[in-house]
Amino acid sequence: MESDRNLGYAQERKTNLKGVPLKGTLVLVVAAAAALVALPAGALGSSSRTTTNTQSFVDSTGEDPNAPDITGINVSNTDGGLITFHVAISNRPTLTSDMTVLLWLDTDANPATGDPQSLGAEYVIEVDPGVVSLFKWDGTTYQSAPSATTVTYGYDATGATVRVGIQDLGGTKLINFGADAISGITTDASGNADFTNAHDDLAPDANHGFYNYSVITKLTLKQTAFAYTPKPAKAGARETATLAATESDTSGPVANATVTCVATIKGVRLRATHSLAGGVASCFWKVPKTAKGKTLIGKITITLKGTTLAHGFTTKIH
């Protein structure tokens, strides 16, 4: 496996995307690369909630007739934050063993942070035949990203397609990015990648900065658990309802949301208190001692950025 060979090449290239010499600190050993997902062309999944947030970025052509020729990059994202990069390569219908395609991602859109030699990139995605790898800048060098569960790729006659979720990029909503397609990589007698005769094409061209893309998502809340206790409700006791949920923006437990608690007995609303911790919303009501034999109708609602998730219940009071 040569999943780190592109960063070895970064040592030997005369210029990077910024047009200045690269440092020799970018070589990585990627033991976890095999755990990342490599898919054949056409095998990338799709989302039924794809947004219309599609942008096209044009690159100049014919810079080096011996290099893969990037003609442009199309970028789009789903409502859930899965970003698709299609790097159009006009003269390489297959991803051959001598090739690598890189995506450099400045995920905070701030060139003053991240890798100072690569316009502030925080991440690099590397596509090699049979494997795709995600690397993260640690302040000194790039290291294999600890989690890259959303990263997939495909390659066909039109070029490389890479998908990555914002949750694997720190939840970013604004990205500055560039691509580098390299060919002519060989292997020396020691089994190391040899870039002596390598040729590459940058998009945008050197000294032209990065492209800019804004991720537009639609927040969704997903219920992971619901319960109410005691079941059935008891007169004179406290009734508790809990609703656990995750939010699509972070793919983690819901946080900083508003919790609304409603419970009635014969149309009379009960006083409620609530809490939200660890992605679990809780509602608490004191059931009157005189309510035995009546019915309690309750509902717990989580609201975050205009999106709501609710669960109701009905219980006979004992």
Can you put this structure into words, describing what you see?
With 318 residues, this protein is mostly beta strands. The protein folds into 2 domains: 5-214, Immunoglobulin-like (Sandwich); 221-316, Immunoglobulins (Immunoglobulin-like, Sandwich), CATH 2.60.40. Helices cover 3% and strands 47% of the residues. The protein has 1 helix and 23 strands. The chain has one helix spanning 5-12, and strands spanning 50-58, 70-78, 82-89, 100-106, 123-128, 131-137, 142-144, 152-156, 159-165, 174-183, 186-187, 193-194, 199-203, 211-214, 221-229, 238-247, 252-253, 258-265, 268-269, 272-277, 280-286, 295-304, 307-316. Strands 4, 5, 6, 7, 10, 13 and 14 form a 7-stranded antiparallel sheet that branches. Strands 1-2-3-9-8 form a 5-stranded antiparallel sheet, with no helix packed on it. Strands 15, 16, 17, 20 and 21 form a 5-stranded antiparallel sheet that branches. The chain is elongated and about 85 Å long. 41% of the residues are buried. The model is unreliable at 1-50 (pLDDT under 50).
